[in-house]
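Backbone shape codes
____________________
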Amino acid sequence: MKTAELEPNPGRRGVLAGTAALLVGGAAAAAISASPALADDAELLALCARAESLYRRFHDFYAGGAHPIADEDEREVALQPLYDAEEDIGHEIFNMTAKTLAAHQARARVVLAYHGDFDDFKNSVVNHGTDGRVLAALIRDLTAEFVL
């Protein structure tokens, strides 16, 4: 089932709002179940796996990655196909409704993959007030990243 279309919203507040929307997906926490309804979320789970892989490839082009490119302009050219794929996958993930706990956990792993690890994610959101801290706690709990 589809939800409202994602509108681009640049800036940290936009990243926070988009991340929260990816996680919650319109479903109340009480409705999250670990039922055998995984088939209902098969497409979402596959998209999340693709997104995780995509973000790992992004990180490969930066210092410490498998294929670092020091020159920023060259790196941007190399990353352009990944940016294009990211846009499509991100919209699809946002517009789907997760029906299982596994799907919510997959979305949380996408957020961590985007940031590289939990510490980078946490550092990018915890100083944004309660919403950032709660969002970090949600990601932590859904991904079992219990080190704060």
